[in-house]
Amino acid sequence: MQTVIGKTYYQVPRFETLRDLIRYSVEKYGDTPAYRYHDKPGGPDVVRTYREFGQAIDEMGTGLLAMGFAGEHLVVVGENSYEWAIANTAIVNGVGITVPLDKQLPVSEVINLTQRGKAVAFIYHPKHHEIAKMVAQAVPQVRSLICMKADIIEPELAQADARFTDMDQVRAAGRAALAAGDRSFVDAVIDPEKMSSLLFTSGTTAMSKGVMLCHRNITHNVFAVMSTIKLEAGQRALSVLPLHHTFENTVGMYMMLGFGINICFTDGLRYLVDNMKEWKINIILAVPLLFENIYHAVQKKLVKSGKLALVNKLRVVARLLRKVGIDIRKKLFHQIHEGVGGGLSLCVSGAAAIDKEITAFFNDIGIEFWAGYGLTETSPVISCNNYFVNVYGSVGNPLATIEVGIDADSDEPGAIGEILSKSPSNMLGYYENPEATAEVLTSDGWVRTGDIGYLDKQGCIFITGRKKSMIVLPNGKKAFPEEIEFVVNRIPGVKESIVWGDELNRDTIDICAKIVFSDELLPEGLAGDSEKISAYLAEQIKLVNKDMPVYKAVRNFVWTTEELIKTTTLKVKRPEESKKIKAWLDEHQTTMRAKTGQRMS
């Protein structure tokens, strides 16, 4: 097995617990802003300092202990907010075990995961108030339901069900107890090796697995990231991804706090550019779709202004000048910079592959753009490009101190196999599921990622697809849907796609695709004309197939303007999409071969 260990570029403090990290940040950054947000879109800034954040955590934690939640499991669910950060951090830093839930889960799954997670408290955002009422009725084990905002709980509900309260009341009780000398939370003993977070993976309630993470897992991942990249205290990062997701939780929150970053909560995706401009955002961590949208918006403006050709020529000039140590990218492309806020200097993309042209564009105009990779099971980051190594198309070298291996038949660079990772960031296991744990965690400490890829000569990881979605053809050849989707998605007008193998009989498997069109991206003259779109797409698929091995060629396709089913981190839910496609074919009593080229409606 070929292996590589990430290089350490920066010497940074190593924290044993998240409480150590928070106390370090409060002491080091004190009265500098930790959080910035609006109570309502477009409203005045609300700013909270590191010292205020630390005090709020102590109040909340002390209040929760006074309510009898020591060592218990507590759900946190809702929109990204300052209150979410307080609640989650207070729980792990001396109360018990946090169970962060996806804010977009239907009520049935919220109820089931609250039960499966054995939660006895339910801390929720005001938008989840109606769901909280249903949880109160369906889950008697929940002893308290705490709304993150005051004045949301109806007086009659509070009178009828004493379990309902709000964070202001919990914090007020904690504040009073602290003033009276209560140090139960402040001095609580934290075992860095015991589960502190229980995170359910995406999927149906029955299928989702509970990933158990401890302080050591998360603080090691923070250390590994901080040892690989360098951020400056006072920079502003926009919080876009949901906080229940490990990438935003570990990196977008705790790593940022370790660097003294000012975390800004977006008012919502439709206010993204407004927030970027108002707050002069410097850093964004997000999924490819968000960066693709920004890229396409910039390209559209350049085409409209007639400056696209000039910008592309200047990109070449800027690259040549950088080779001799002259960097004038921000001066050359200052108008583009102003269009995306004026302060953006770093973008990190995770969760899926991103087009190399998008990566190159951002880097060429003076915005560092890196692709990274990780799993909930690895707390989460395994690798990322950085200031020293940025290989387009790869997800970079492993982070400092993290070891990556390729389970392939050969040890030579380029040998393809399953990607494995070994480090203190690796999870404790799956909650109450030793069988699933044994499938993923090896006896010698590796996590089997389920992703297939290879290492290049620089030790950069390239991902070719998922082991589970791999299509094995009758002749033994293997095709990865993700690779084919990546090429299909580059067709002008295509927003996204999903590829699968349609088994017609024992000897035949057709590669099929469902393609999503965007009217905004379509070439001129095609929008609204189904026949023209079908003909155009058929021609484009032929061109795609010419550049691929015959066995990977797309044989049949359908198209639609309806977006694919996704998780909150915008990953396509393949099993649900497969069911949807099958149901459509069954309804029409037909096959993909018979329907190829047609609109799926």
Q: Beta-sheet strand percentage?
A: 15-25%
Strand order of the largest sheet: 3-2-12-11-13-14-15-16-17
Number of strands: 27
Report the biggest beta sheet as strand number plus sense, adding barrel if it closes.
9 strands, mixed
Class per helix and strand makeup: alpha/beta
Rg calculated over all Cα atoms: 25 Å
CATH superfamily of the largest domain: ANL, N-terminal domain
Helix content: 25-40%
**Number of separate helices:** 20
Name of the level-1 CATH class of the largest domain: Alpha Beta
Termini Cα gap = 47 Å
Judging by the overall fold, what is the CATH architecture of the largest domain?
Answer: 3-Layer(aba) Sandwich
Can you tell me the residue ranges where pLDDT is under 50 for at least 5 consecutive residues?
A: none
Q: Tally the structural domains.
A: 3
Layout of secondary structure:
Elements lengths: L1 E4 L12 H12 L3 E6 L6 E5 H17 L6 E5 L4 H14 L1 E5 L5 H10 L2 E6 L4 H10 L5 E4 L7 H6 L3 E3 H13 L15 E6 L9 E5 H12 L9 E4 L6 H14 L2 E4 L6 H8 L3 E4 L1 H18 L2 H16 L5 H4 L1 H6 L6 E4 L6 H9 L3 E7 L6 E4 L12 E2 L4 E5 L9 E6 L6 E2 L3 H7 L6 E9 L5 E6 L4 E2 L5 E2 L1 H8 L5 E12 L2 E10 L12 H17 L7 E7 L13 H14 L4 H4 L6
Parallel strand pairs: 2-12, 4-5, 4-6, 6-7, 7-8, 11-12, 11-13, 13-14, 14-15, 26-27
Antiparallel strand pairs: 1-18, 2-3, 9-10, 10-20, 15-16, 16-17, 18-19, 19-21, 21-22, 23-24, 25-26
Helix pairs in contact: 1-2, 1-9, 2-3, 2-7, 4-5, 8-9
